[in-house]
Amino acid sequence: MSETHLSPLPRLVPPSGPAGPDQPWWNAQRGSTMPFRRYRRTPAVQVPDRRDWPGRTADRAPLWASVDLRDGNQSLANPMDIQRKTMLFDLLVRMGFKDIEVGYPSASEADFSFLRELITRDRIPDDVTVSVFTPARPELIDRTFEAIEGADRAMVHLCHATACLWREVVFQMTTTDVERMAVTAAEHVLRRADAAGRTRFRFEYSPETFNITEPEYVLGLSNTVAALWDAAPDRPVTLNLPTTVETDHPHVFADQVEWMHRNLERRESIILSVHPHNDRGTAVASAELAVLAGADRIEGTLFGNGERTGNVCLATLALNLFSQGVDPQLDFSDIDGIRRTVEAANQMPVPARHPYAGDLVYTAFSGTHQDAISKGLRAMARRAEEADEPESRTAWQVPYLPIDPKDVGRDYEAVVRVNSQSGRGGIAHVLRGSYGLDLPRALSRELAEHVQRAADRDGTEVNSRRLWEIFSTEYLEPADPYLTLKDYEVSHGPAGTGLRALVTVRGGTELALLGSGADPATAFTRALTAAGIPAELLTLTQHPLTGAERPRATAGPASRTTPRTAAYGQLSATGRTWWGAAIADRPDGAELQAVVSAINRVHA
Ligand SMILES: CC(=O)SCCNC(=O)CCNC(=O)[C@H](O)C(C)(C)COP(=O)(O)OP(=O)(O)OC[C@H]1O[C@@H](n2cnc3c(N)ncnc32)[C@H](O)[C@@H]1OP(=O)(O)O
Ligand SMILES: CC(C)C(=O)C(=O)O
Ligand SMILES: [Mg+2]
Question: What residue spans carry the region label Disordered (predicted)?
Fold first, then answer.
C-alpha cells in the first residue's frame, strides 16, 4: 500500500526580533479601553530542569473517568431526574467507561435515590466502579455512606478547596484550619468505610482549585491524606488535580502536574488524575499535556458539559488519540447515537462545530477543500483496490478529514455540501456520489458557473436535489428545446456507422436526417450540418449508470434500477465550444442525446 511520504520538517529559523510594534510589518492597533489592569497573571510553579513532558508522546489511553452525572449534572438548569440519569449511565457503561462518578448523593433526593436504584436493582456491572462525591462535612459524609450502603464496590470522592482565595473568602480559615478540615474529613471517611461491612471501598481526594494553590501546600495536603488512607499499590488512592477554574496556559498546568508526579510520596500507590475545566478554552490541551507530564487518569464529560464553560470533553480527547492510531478504549462508533443520548440527558444541544461530533465537522463547503476531499476519497478507494483490502482497513489519508467519518458512524454524504463557496470539484463529487455521474472536468467547470449563479442568487446551500435540477435544466431537459430527437436507427457496415434520425426543430418542423461517420454521434453531427444546423463533434465520453451508487437521490436517474448510460459531448459551433449531456437507456441513444443537448444550448 502506498503511503504519503512527508518531507522532513524544515529547520526553525530564529525570528529576527520580538513580534511587536517595532516591526515594520506590525499593523498599528489602537489600545483598548478594556480594564485589563484588574487582572493578574497566576504565578506559575517553576520546575527547573525537570520538565520531561515536552519530549513525550501519548501512546496509550489514560484511565477515563466520567463525571457527567455529577459535575455535568450540577451545572444544568434542570438537573437530571432518575430517568435521564439512568439513560446516561447505561450509555457510559455501553461505551466502556469503568470509572463513573454517579452523583453527589448528600446534595439531593434525586442523586440519593438514583444511587439506591443502581445498587438495589443491581445495575452496576462487575467491572464498573461507581464513585460518589462528598464535601469535607461530616454530616454530608454520613449521608453519602447511607447512599452507598450495600454496594459491592464504590469510590468515595472527598473534595474541598485549597487555594488562598477560597481559604480566605469561602472558609475564612488558615492553611492549618484547612488541613485540619481535610484530615478530619478523611478520617471520618475511613471510619465510615471500615464500619460499612461488605463494600470494597476506594478513595479519591481532590484539592479543589489545585491549579491556583501554593504547590508545597497542596503537595503536603495530598501526602497527608494519602498516608491517612494508607495508599498502597493494591489499594491505590486517586489523587485528582482539578483546574476548577482554568487560569493558565496548558503548559503551566503540565509543569504543575509533573512537579506533583515527581514529588508525591507513595507515587506508586497513587492514581494521579486530572480534572480540567475549560474556562480559557484549553481544557483539552491541558489534559493532553497533563498526561504527558505523568497523569494516569482524566475526569471529564461527554462533549464537555459542566460548570461554566464546561469540563474537558472526553470525546475529543479519546478521538484525538484515535486519530493518532492509539486505541481510545471507548466505543465512539455511533457518535450520533451517543450525542443524541447526551443531548436528551443534558437537555442541551452539542454545537455544530464540536470536534468529532458536531453536525458540520466532516463537511466542507469551500471549493478547494471539497476538491481535495473528493480526490482523497478516490485515492483511498484506489489504494484499497490495489492492496485488495476493504477500504475500512486502508490507512486513512484524506486531506481535511482527520478521521474517516465512517469510523464514528457517519457517511460520506454530508462530507461535501455545495453553496456559493464551492467549486467544480465539490459539484462533481456530489453528482458522482448522489447520481453516479462522472462529468468530464471541463463540463463540471462549466456547470460550476451555473451552480455559482444559482447559489449567489438564492444565497443558500445547493443540496443534491437542487444540483440535479440545475444540471438537468441546463443540459438534460431545457425549458424550450431547439431540437428534439424523435427517432433514430443506427447501422454498422464496413464503411462505418450509418444513421437515420428524425428530429423536430423549434416551431414544429420535422427533419429526416441521414448521415455516416466513425460513430453514431459523428454521423449525427454531419447530418445536422448538412441540414443547416452546423456543428462539429470534438469529444464524446460515456459511462454506465448502475444506480447502486446513488443513496438518496430523489430525482433523475436514481429512480431507475435498470442500467442506463450517461454521455457527455463537446461540439464546436458558432465559433466556440458547447457541452452537452444526456442519460438514456442505450449507449448510442445517450450519445445522440448528448449532441442534441449541446445543440440546444447553442440555440438556447
Ligand atoms: C468544584 C465542585 O464542583 S465542588 C461540587 C459542587 N457541587 C455542588 O455544590 C452541588 C450540590 N450541592 C448542594 O446541593 C448543596 O451545596 C449542599 C446540599 C451539598 C449543601 O448545602 P448547604 O448546606 O445549604 O450549603 P451551601 O450550598 O450554601 O454551601 C456553602 C457551605 O459549604 C461550605 N463548603 C463548601 N464547599 C465545601 C467543601 N468542599 N467541604 C466542606 N465545606 C464546604 C462553605 O464553606 C459553606 O459553609 P458556611 O455556610 O459555613 O460558610
Ligand atoms: C470536585 C472537583 C474535582 C471539581 O469538580 C472541580 O474542582 O472542578
Ligand atoms: Mg469540576
Answer: 1-29, 545-566
Distance separating alpha carbons of residues 380 and 375, to the nearest angstrom: 9
Class of domain 63-346: alpha beta
- Per-domain residue ranges of the chain: 63-346, 367-476, 483-602
- Which ligand 1 atom sits closest to the C-alpha of 181? 41
Alpha carbons within 13 A on the beta-carbon side of 571: 29
Single out the residue of 488, 484, 528 nearest to residue 509, CA to CA: 484
364, 386, 381: which is closest to 373 by C-alpha?
364
Residue 566, CA distances (Å) to 490, 550, 588 in order: 18, 14, 10
Q: How far is the CA of 297 from the centre of ligand 1 (A)?
A: 26
CATH of domain 483-602: 3.30.160.270
**Rounded-to-integer distance, Cα 569 and Cα 309, Å:** 57
In this structure, which CATH number among 3.30.70.1350, 3.40.50.1970, 1.10.287.1400, 3.40.50.1260 belongs to the domain 367-476? 1.10.287.1400
Which of 544, 497, 545, 525 has the alpha carbon at shortest distance from 595? 525
The angle, 0 to 180 degrees and rounded to 10, between the axes of the packed helices 424-435 and 367-387 is: 50
**Tens digits of per-residue pLDDT, 42-95?**
777 777 677 899 999 999 999 999 999 999 999 999 999 999 999 999 999 999
Q: Quick one: pLDDT at residue 550?
A: 40
For residue 516, report the phi and psi dihedrals to the nearest 5 degrees.
-145, 160
Q: Distance between CA atoms of 321 and 434, rounded to whole angstroms?
A: 33
Do residues 224 and 175 lie in contact, with contact meaning Cβ atoms separated by under 8 Å? no
- What is the CB < 6 Å shell around ligand 1? 71, 74, 104, 106-108, 135-137, 140, 159-160, 170-171, 208, 244
Q: How far apart are CA 154 and CA 322, in angstroms?
A: 30
In 10 A of CB 570, how many CB atoms? 21
Give me ligand 2 centre to Cα 133, in Å. Answer: 10
Mutating to test ligand 2, I would choose from 155, 205, 206, 277 the residue with most ligand atoms within 8 A of its C-beta, which is 206
In order, the DSSP letters of 315-382 are: HHHHHHHHHTT---SS--TTHHHHHHHHHHHHT-PPPTTSTTTSTTTT-B-SHHHHHHHHHHHHHHHH
Q: Specify the residue for cell string 466542507.
A: 364
CA separation, residue 399 to residues 182, 375, 412, 420, 461 (Å): 52, 9, 14, 21, 23
Q: Please list every protein residue whose CB sits less than 6 Å from any atom of ligand 2.
A: 71, 159, 206, 208, 240, 242, 244, 275, 277
Ramachandran angles phi, psi of 505, nearest 5°: -105, 150
ipTM of this complex prediction, to 2 decimal places: 0.96
Cα 97 from Cα 153, distance rounded (Å): 15
- pLDDT for the residue numbered 211: 96
Same fold, 367-476 and 483-602: no
Q: Which residues contact 231 (CB under 8 A, 6 or more apart)?
A: 237, 266, 269, 270
pTM for this predicted structure:
0.90
Strands 129-135 and 63-66, bridge-based pairing: unpaired
Pocket test for ligand 2, best of 111, 137, 277 (most atoms within 8 A of CB): 277
Ligand 3 ion: nearby residues, β-carbon < 5 Å: 71
